[in-house]
Amino acid sequence: MLQRPRPEAPGIAAGIDEKLIGTLVDRFYAAVRRDEILGPVFESRIADWDEHLAKLRDFWSSVVLMTGRYKGRPMPVHAAIAEITDTHFERWLALFAETARAVCPPAAAALFIDRSRRIAESLKMGIALSRGDDSVLGGGPVSLGNSQAERAE
Q: CA 131 to CA 136: how far, in whole Å?
């Protein structure tokens, strides 16, 4: 059962509805599956894409429409993926922003991109802490190693 968006949800003012969330999620993860960097990480772990996409639609509905539909715990799932690095986050964010700008009106794209960046930073911090890197508690950007900038040095 779909819960209704809360009137004060940030997505309401940005013109976001469930249909737009579905379009964004479906288009973005189709691109992820084709991506050379992200595709192998996802394909090796997701057995049922229909189920996963439904969960992601619930996630984004909860984030931007405050529906409360998502009941999962993304941190432990992502922390358990040993090969995730800054490169994966950089690519995920770039591809997400590109897709959001292609399928959403400007205000909606801006909101999705802002929330995706906040979520990525939170996940990066949680992953770093789960790997025993407590230097992230001092503030500043969180690095998981192997980022493009680190490889360039």
A: 11
Q: Could you tell me the residue ranges of all domains in the chain? A: 15-152
Residues lower than pLDDT 50 in the chain: 146-153
The set of residues, in sequence order, having a beta carbon less than 8 Å from that of 89 and lying 6+ positions away, is 120, 123, 124, 144
Tell me the CB-side half-sphere exposure of residue 30, using CA atoms within 13 A.
8
pLDDT in tens, 80-89: 887 888 899 9
The CATH class that applies to domain 15-152 reads mainly alpha
pTM for the predicted model, two decimal places: 0.84
CA dist., res. 30 & res. 27, Å (int): 5
